[in-house]
Amino acid sequence: MSNTPKALTIAGSDSGGGAGIQADLKTFQELGAYGMSVITAVTAQNTKGVQNIHAIPVEMVADQLKSIADDLRPESLKTGMLFSAEIIEAVSSHIEEYQWTNVVVDPVMIAKGGSELLKKDAIEALKKHLLPLADILTPNIPEAEQLTGRKIENKQDREDAAKFLHGLGAKKIVIKGGHLPNENEPVDLYYDGERMIEFEGKRIITTQTHGTGCTFAAAITAELAVGKSPIEAVETAKTFIQEAISAPLHLGSGHGPTNHWAYRRKYQ
Ligand SMILES: Nc1ncnc2c1ncn2[C@@H]1O[C@H](COP(=O)(O)OP(=O)(O)OP(=O)(O)O)[C@@H](O)[C@H]1O
Ligand SMILES: Cc1ncc(COP(=O)(O)O)c(N)n1
Hints:
Layout: E1 6-14, H1 20-30, E2 34-46, E3 49-55, H2 58-69, E4 76-79, H3 85-98, E5 103-105, H4 123-130, E6 136-137, H5 141-148, H6 155-167, E7 172-175, E8 188-191, E9 196-199, H7 212-225, H8 230-246, H9 262-267
Parallel strand pairs: 1-2, 1-4, 4-5, 5-6, 6-7
Antiparallel strand pairs: 2-3, 7-8, 8-9
Helix pairs in contact: 1-7, 2-3, 3-4, 5-6, 7-8
Family: Belongs to the ThiD family.
GO molecular function: ATP binding; hydroxymethylpyrimidine kinase activity; phosphomethylpyrimidine kinase activity
Protein name: Hydroxymethylpyrimidine/phosphomethylpyrimidine kinase
């Protein structure tokens, strides 16, 4: 048996290649994990926005999960765009049934251009079924506000939100700082029930940030697959995304994708 680390993404396809499944698989590959995917929805999408969404029937999502479980157990997995309550329930019960570990939940809700990637009525299902299974939950600030029902306006609010989400069952939480005002550095706040750690970054003023959230969570997932600790995984993911935003590819005319090979060029 090979001991090649395997990472799974359960997410939506982005035809433009910058976010979703495509960002996740590129990131897994860059960090040395064999990538596998379960597709929950197909989006017609480019750097200008999301033009259409086709949800995959829940039975087909379950079949993809089963095919992987029957043959290729992942060392870690991440969830991204899950779109509906029924897909969330199917994914959650599968994770429970197979007792999959190193579960990273990126609670994707809204795309950069404003399109809804998670139905409003699915937020409760996410809180009830998936959050308690999350080893690491990675909301951005608007997502943390949705999940807690509280406004986040300062550092104290962010710490309170992290504690609240821990209370809902997520074991570790990273509230990302990308959505802080431009004059603030993009500090990501990590909480594991005991420690609050700030992961610092340097804000780059750019439109080339399509897929930052997916890429960051995928880097954490890849690092967990190769055996790193959660804190080491977040640290590498922070450097990975900083590099990916720093060396943009300038593709398309809207929010361009990040550069998934920038980290390798610098560090490997
Ligand atoms: N302009 C930026 N400069 C440097 N780092 C950034 C910038 N924007 C986001 N980041 C970092 O990228 C990662 C993803 O954060 P962000 O808050 O953007 O997630 P997200 O909102 O889920 O992504 P998206 O906005 O693409 O949906 C975090 O580590 C964050 O600190
Ligand atoms: C299929 C899909 N999944 C997720 C996102 C959000 O992207 P991100 O938050 O990483 O920019 C997206 N735009 N499309």
